Each structure stands twice: as C-alpha cells, then as structure tokens.
Amino acid sequence: MTILHADLDSFYASVEQRDDPRLRGRPVLVGGGVVLAASYEAKARGVRTPMSLAQARALCPDAIVVPPRMSAYSEASTRVFEIFRDTTPLVEGISIDEAFLDVSGLRRIRGTPAEIAATLRADVRERAGLPITVGVARTKFLAKVASGVGKPDGLLVVPVDGELDFLHPLPVERLWGVGPVTAAKLRDRQIHTVGHVARVGEAALVAMLGAGAGRHLHALAHNHDPRRVRAGVRRGSIGSQCALGRGPHTFAEVDAVLAALVDRVARRMRAASRPGRTVMLRLRFGDYTRATRSRSLLTATLSTRAILGTARVLLSAARPLITERGITLVGVAVGNLDGGGAVQPELPFDDPHDEGLDSALDAIRDRFGAGSVTRADRLGRDLHQAAPILPD
C-alpha cells in the first residue's frame, strides 16, 4: 500500500496571497481578534495559530491583516479536491485543506509514487495557484508525518526499508495524540524522541499514560497503522464556528452568535436531508484552553429550534468558565447524522409551525442570499467564521 498525504501550505494565507499580488512575499495574517492563519513569512517571525492578533503584531509589526473569506477558501478547496480525484479515485478528505490519497497499483499508468506526488504538486500549483506539500509512505500515519517534516511546499518520500530510520529521531510531538500535556509527561521521564517511545515498551507506556494512549503511542512508534484510505465516507457531523476576538463579550453577545451558527448548521442539515441527534458545543477561551460539551436528543431532528434549545443549555452550563476566562471562539456541530433524511415527530406536538418556518426561511435565503433574513440581535454585526468544522 502506498499513501500520499497532501496538505496545502498555510491555506487561508496562501489563498489571500494568490488573489492579491501585493501580499506575495509579505507577512500575512488572516483573522480578527485571533490569528486563524499566518503566511510562512509571518511564521518565520514566530507567529502561530491560534494566537491573539496583539501578540502576533508584537512579533511581526509589519504584518498585513486580512479578514477571512470563507467562500474563497471553500471554492479553492473544491478545486484542489477535484485535482486529487483526477489523480486517484481513492481520496479521503480529512479537512478543508488536506487529504489522504491511495496510489497503490497506479505505477503502470502514472509512474512511481514519487512521480505521482510530483505531478500532483505541479497540477495544484498550475490549476489552483496554491503551494502544497506531499508526504509519501506505506501508512497513513507516516505519510502525514512526512508531509509535516517536508513543509513548506515540499515533497518527502519515506522508503519502506527506511521507515524507522526516518521516524525514530523525530520529537515525540510528531506522534498523533501527543499534545503539550502528554509531551511534558514523556519528557519528565527523559523520553524525548519517537525512538525513545518505541524502546520504552507498551506496558510502561500504559502505566504512564493509560491503556488507550499507551497502546496507541506504542503502535505508532513502530509505524503500526493498518487504516486504509476510505473514499466516499459521508461526514459524521455538520458544524460551524466563529472567532470572536479577544475583547470582552457579554453573555448575550455570545448567545446571539450561537443562534446565528445554529441557523447556518440547521439549514445545511436540511439541504443535505441529514437529521442529527447529538448537539456539540465547542468553546475556546481567552487563555487558549478549549472545552467541548455535548448532549444527545431522544430522536434525530432537523429543527432549528430543537438544536438551538439544546445548544443554549450547554452554553449556560459553561457560563462560569466563560466569565472566568473570557471567550474567543464559539462553535456548534450536530453529529449522529442519519443518512436517510427521515425524522420521527417528537411528542408533545407543541409547535406545528416549526417545520414550515424553517422551510420558508431556507427558501428565502436560497433565493435572496444567506444574509437576506437574520436574527434581530445580529443586525449590524458580521459573523466571521473561523476554520470550518469538517468531516470526522
């Protein structure tokens, strides 16, 4: 099996530089109060995401800040994924700007994996005008690691007989699932590289990190990853999120943003005929910590009111954290989606007009634009999306 991991470089910032020649070669930040994306010129000065705009400007005073244009990023993503599917029918998208491609068995018609990857990079540059990095390896995990090491705008092939030679010298943070907390635990025990993790042994890792994490990291440290590229997998959730900036926000303002996000999500669910049962609330606080809360309904629904009511219960429960830490991002998603579009009516039938109201609003927005009808508490305010919540 030969897998490519294709990852667009600084995607949002690259789209802005592509569309505005004045931005090329200059440090570019995409976002409002929080940096959603930074060009490599800005990253070279220490800018990272998510970072407050004030911090980013302190590191890079000459940075050019542009607001996010989600429609442009979505259009660019669609174009790039068409190129992916022209390369191989086995494409598994994992976000708006990256995908796995299985190119096994294409040698006779397209050349070696390295040649296929080089052609893919050239096609993306020519047809979409964007830089992309491609990692090539035998497993999904190693292909993704290779693309990370190969950035920016690079191509890195890991030969089968050199997998562990490539993997083991890398820092532990290269392992999926190793964030700052897990990395600190490992480094406290003088475990600094993937090779160190491999030599520790599964039992010791389980004792140190727990059964799930210990077994997971032990397998990855030996490049054991049997997952195949899954083409045509339907998304497991539909969601949207919004960066709020680092200024103070009243709870009423946050609630208004949540309501607008639910409007957007529910409309997309109805367009796809995919009712859902689990409502998820995602929050990012002023200290960069995050929280996720979820609640499942008794039956799947397409109703804006039902989803919003559940989301508001979750938001109210998180109110003490919001008050204490401040908030910079709100997101809502609905999971456990049903593919058939069937919705069981809920009892009691307390508002028979919900479905008709949702349908009427959808029709108006489809004909006259998403902003033609909005909630009163959103008048005069733009809802700037952060990175969209994508397929699971």
Molecular structure report:
The structure is a single chain. This protein is of the alpha+beta class. Among the domains are: 168-221, DNA polymerase, domain 1, CATH 1.10.150.20; 237-378, Dna Ligase, domain 1. It has helices spanning 11-19, 40-43, 53-59, 70-87, 107-110, 113-128, 140-150, 163-167, 180-188, 194-200, 202-209, 211-221, 251-272, 304-317, 319-325, 354-368, and strands spanning 3-8, 28-31, 35-38, 64-66, 91-95, 98-102, 132-137, 155-157, 237-243, 276-285, 290-301, 327-335. A 5-stranded mixed β-sheet has the order 5-6-1-7-8. Strands 9-12-10-11 form a 4-stranded antiparallel β-sheet. A 3-stranded mixed β-sheet has the order 3-2-4. A hairpin with a 4-residue loop joins strand 10 and strand 11. The longest helix is centred in the last third of the chain and has 22 residues, at 251-272. The radius of gyration is 23 Å and the shape is globular. It starts with a strand and ends in a 24-residue tail after the last helix. Residues 341-353, 365-370 and 377-392 have low confidence and may be disordered.
Summarize the structure.
The record marks 12 as: Substrate discrimination. With 392 residues, the protein is of the alpha+beta class.
Give the name of the CATH superfamily of the domain at 237-378: DNA polymerase, Y-family, little finger domain
Report the sheet with the most strands, covering strand number, pairing sense and barrel closure: 5 strands, mixed
Strand content: 15-25%
Order of helices and strands: EHEEHHEHEEHHEHEHHHHHEHEEHHEH
Residue stretches low in confidence (pLDDT < 50, at least 5 long) are 341-353, 365-370, 377-392
- What CATH calls the topology of the domain at 237-378 is Dna Ligase, domain 1
Note the overall shape: globular
Which CATH first-tier class of the domain at 237-378 would you pick?
Alpha Beta
Count of DSSP strands: 12
Strand order of the largest sheet: 5-6-1-7-8
Measured distance between first and last alpha carbons: 23 Å
- Mean pLDDT over the full residue set: 85
CATH structural architecture of the domain at 237-378: 2-Layer Sandwich
**Total helical elements:** 16
The secondary-structure class comes to alpha+beta
Radius of gyration: 23 Å
